[in-house]
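CATEGORY: protein folding

GOAL: derive C-alpha coordinates
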Amino acid sequence: MDLAIQGVWQNFYLDDDLDASVVDLTTWAVNVHASKTFGALTLFGGIQREHANVKVQYLLESDDVAPGVNEIDPNEPVEVRLDLDSANSFRVIGGFSVHFGPVLLAADLNLGNVRTASATLGFSI
Protein backbone atom coordinates (compact mmCIF):
# COMPACT_ATOMS: atom_id res chain seq x y z
CA MET A 1 0.00 0.00 0.00
CA ASP A 2 1.25 3.47 -0.88
CA LEU A 3 0.53 6.51 1.30
CA ALA A 4 0.81 10.21 0.45
CA ILE A 5 0.40 13.37 2.51
CA GLN A 6 -0.03 16.71 0.75
CA GLY A 7 -0.31 20.33 1.79
CA VAL A 8 -1.22 23.11 -0.64
CA TRP A 9 -1.45 26.87 -0.25
CA GLN A 10 -2.25 29.25 -3.13
CA ASN A 11 -2.68 33.00 -3.33
CA PHE A 12 -3.75 34.99 -6.38
CA TYR A 13 -4.17 38.73 -6.35
CA LEU A 14 -4.88 41.43 -8.89
CA ASP A 15 -4.34 45.13 -8.29
CA ASP A 16 -5.58 48.08 -10.32
CA ASP A 17 -3.47 50.91 -11.79
CA LEU A 18 -3.30 52.62 -8.38
CA ASP A 19 -2.13 49.43 -6.58
CA ALA A 20 -5.52 49.00 -4.88
CA SER A 21 -6.59 45.38 -4.43
CA VAL A 22 -9.27 44.23 -6.89
CA VAL A 23 -9.11 40.45 -6.38
CA ASP A 24 -7.53 38.53 -3.50
CA LEU A 25 -7.97 34.74 -3.63
CA THR A 26 -6.51 32.39 -1.03
CA THR A 27 -6.90 28.61 -0.89
CA TRP A 28 -5.37 25.86 1.19
CA ALA A 29 -5.79 22.11 1.52
CA VAL A 30 -4.28 19.26 3.52
CA ASN A 31 -4.94 15.66 2.54
CA VAL A 32 -3.93 12.05 3.11
CA HIS A 33 -4.31 9.42 0.37
CA ALA A 34 -3.73 5.68 0.19
CA SER A 35 -3.60 3.45 -2.86
CA LYS A 36 -3.19 -0.24 -3.58
CA THR A 37 -2.34 -1.77 -6.96
CA PHE A 38 -3.61 -5.19 -8.06
CA GLY A 39 -2.06 -5.93 -11.45
CA ALA A 40 -3.41 -3.32 -13.88
CA LEU A 41 -5.97 -1.97 -11.36
CA THR A 42 -5.18 0.68 -8.75
CA LEU A 43 -7.72 1.61 -6.06
CA PHE A 44 -7.26 4.83 -4.11
CA GLY A 45 -8.98 6.86 -1.44
CA GLY A 46 -8.35 9.70 0.94
CA ILE A 47 -9.61 12.54 3.08
CA GLN A 48 -9.05 16.27 2.66
CA ARG A 49 -9.53 19.41 4.76
CA GLU A 50 -9.73 22.60 2.68
CA HIS A 51 -10.74 26.24 2.54
CA ALA A 52 -11.00 28.95 -0.10
CA ASN A 53 -11.78 32.67 0.16
CA VAL A 54 -12.05 35.33 -2.52
CA LYS A 55 -12.43 39.05 -1.97
CA VAL A 56 -13.36 41.30 -4.89
CA GLN A 57 -13.57 45.06 -4.68
CA TYR A 58 -13.88 47.62 -7.47
CA LEU A 59 -15.67 50.78 -8.53
CA LEU A 60 -18.41 50.46 -11.15
CA GLU A 61 -18.46 53.56 -13.32
CA SER A 62 -21.83 54.73 -14.67
CA ASP A 63 -20.55 54.20 -18.24
CA ASP A 64 -20.41 50.44 -17.46
CA VAL A 65 -24.15 50.20 -16.72
CA ALA A 66 -26.69 49.76 -19.52
CA PRO A 67 -29.20 52.63 -19.76
CA GLY A 68 -32.41 51.94 -17.85
CA VAL A 69 -31.01 48.91 -16.00
CA ASN A 70 -29.90 50.72 -12.86
CA GLU A 71 -30.63 54.27 -11.97
CA ILE A 72 -27.38 55.56 -10.52
CA ASP A 73 -25.92 59.01 -10.35
CA PRO A 74 -23.68 59.29 -13.45
CA ASN A 75 -21.25 61.41 -11.42
CA GLU A 76 -20.84 58.85 -8.61
CA PRO A 77 -19.24 55.44 -9.13
CA VAL A 78 -20.77 52.51 -7.24
CA GLU A 79 -18.47 50.47 -5.00
CA VAL A 80 -18.82 46.70 -5.44
CA ARG A 81 -17.52 44.40 -2.66
CA LEU A 82 -17.74 40.61 -2.46
CA ASP A 83 -16.29 38.35 0.23
CA LEU A 84 -16.98 34.67 -0.50
CA ASP A 85 -15.94 31.51 1.36
CA SER A 86 -15.95 28.04 -0.15
CA ALA A 87 -18.80 25.64 0.59
CA ASN A 88 -16.41 22.70 1.04
CA SER A 89 -14.34 22.28 4.17
CA PHE A 90 -13.94 18.50 4.24
CA ARG A 91 -14.15 15.82 1.56
CA VAL A 92 -13.70 12.09 1.11
CA ILE A 93 -12.18 10.90 -2.16
CA GLY A 94 -12.34 7.45 -3.74
CA GLY A 95 -11.52 6.09 -7.16
CA PHE A 96 -9.67 3.71 -9.43
CA SER A 97 -7.36 3.60 -12.42
CA VAL A 98 -6.76 0.81 -14.92
CA HIS A 99 -3.78 0.54 -17.28
CA PHE A 100 -4.27 -1.26 -20.60
CA GLY A 101 -0.78 -1.02 -22.09
CA PRO A 102 -0.38 2.63 -23.14
CA VAL A 103 -4.01 3.47 -22.25
CA LEU A 104 -5.09 4.71 -18.82
CA LEU A 105 -8.70 4.84 -17.68
CA ALA A 106 -9.44 6.49 -14.32
CA ALA A 107 -12.41 7.78 -12.36
CA ASP A 108 -12.92 9.33 -8.95
CA LEU A 109 -15.71 10.59 -6.72
CA ASN A 110 -15.38 13.45 -4.20
CA LEU A 111 -17.96 13.58 -1.41
CA GLY A 112 -18.34 16.79 0.57
CA ASN A 113 -20.73 19.74 0.64
CA VAL A 114 -20.06 19.96 -3.09
CA ARG A 115 -19.95 16.53 -4.76
CA THR A 116 -17.92 15.96 -7.90
CA ALA A 117 -17.05 13.06 -10.16
CA SER A 118 -14.40 12.91 -12.84
CA ALA A 119 -13.20 10.47 -15.47
CA THR A 120 -9.91 10.40 -17.34
CA LEU A 121 -8.74 8.71 -20.52
CA GLY A 122 -5.00 8.97 -21.09
CA PHE A 123 -2.33 7.66 -23.43
CA SER A 124 1.37 7.23 -22.76
CA ILE A 125 4.27 6.55 -25.09
Q: What stands out?
A: The mean pLDDT is 90. The CA atoms of residues 45 and 94 lie 4 Å apart. Residues 2-123 form one domain. The beta strands are 2-15, 21-38, 41-60, 78-85, 90-100, 103-111, 116-123.
